[in-house]
Amino acid sequence: MMGLQLVRVVDEGGDSWVRLELSDGLPTPVANALRRAIINEVPTMAVEEVLVIENSSAMPNEILAHRISLIPFVSDIDNYSLPEECTCGSKLGCERCVVRFVLRAAADTDTVTVYSRDISPEKPDIKVAPVSGDFPIITLAPGQRVELELYVRLGKGRKHAKWQSGIATLYEENGRRYLYVESFGFLPARRMVKEAVKIINQQVKELEQKLEEVMKNAEE
Ligand SMILES: [Zn+2]
């Protein structure tokens, strides 16, 4: 996966988790950078903005919006850009950097619990969706209604924990070093590792360019 056999997959649980063994050639600080990148840098998708059109429930708008923002979304990182990197440069976003969803629910004569499965995309046929339909969001009493527009965007754990792709742990056992990676459902565990490597590569490249500039300026 990463060339040179620096790591090998020891075991894995489908897309949920993967355990890698680090070879002697891979320094622990590098493995630690990888661990940190998985937690802070790998982009995922979550609700960044909620537009409340109607909320006659007992739950205040801010709490409702906060609850919804913590739902992890299956993330299409190949087809969407981070808002700060998108070419549109628009605060509202474009179809490359924002996915719109609606949440409409009402309780008629009985109490209704609204779940993440009630969140529907504005455009069908996209793979972005809540990772599970079973997250309870709010309970509506008879006569109460909610109607919300949700703006899902790519983000990073470094900005807000709601975008943290999963957990990553480095540990030693019987003289061997392992990196255990577990996904919160946004991305397959293997993909998280791959993305983290890509991000570190990019950071090193940027550092190299910066250094070259600094050296050049120092010479002048
Ligand atoms: Zn855009």
Describe this structure in words.
- Strands 1-2-12-11 form a 4-stranded antiparallel sheet.
- The protein has 2 domains: 7-41 and 165-210, Gyrase A, domain 2; 44-157, DNA-directed RNA polymerase, insert domain (RNA Polymerase Alpha Subunit, Chain A, domain 2).
- Helix 1 (28-40) crosses helix 3.
- Helix content is 24%, strand content 35%.
- The chain is of the alpha+beta class and 220 residues long.
- The mean pLDDT is 94.
- Zinc ion binds next to loops.
Describe the secondary structure blueprint for this structure:
Elements: E1 7-13, E2 17-22, H1 28-40, E3 44-55, H2 61-69, E4 73-74, E5 99-106, E6 112-115, E7 119-121, E8 129-130, E9 136-140, E10 145-155, E11 166-173, E12 176-183, H3 189-219
Antiparallel strand pairs: 1-2, 2-12, 3-10, 4-8, 5-7, 5-10, 6-9, 11-12
Helix pairs in contact: 1-3
Helical run tally:
3
Q: Are any ligands bound, and if so which?
A: zinc ion
Computed over alpha carbons, the radius of gyration is 21 Å
- The CATH architecture of the largest domain comes to Beta Complex
CATH homology superfamily name of the largest domain: DNA-directed RNA polymerase, insert domain
pLDDT < 50 stretches: none
General form: globular
The order of strands across the largest sheet is 1-2-12-11
**Percent in helix:** 10-25%
Mean pLDDT: 94
What is the count of β-strands?
A: 12
Provide the structure class. alpha+beta
Give the strand content.
25-35%
Q: Give the quaternary arrangement of the chains.
A: single chain
Task: Provide the descriptors you would attach to this structure in a database record.
single chain; about 220 residues; alpha+beta; Gyrase A, domain 2; RNA Polymerase Alpha Subunit, Chain A, domain 2; 4-stranded antiparallel beta sheet; binds zinc ion
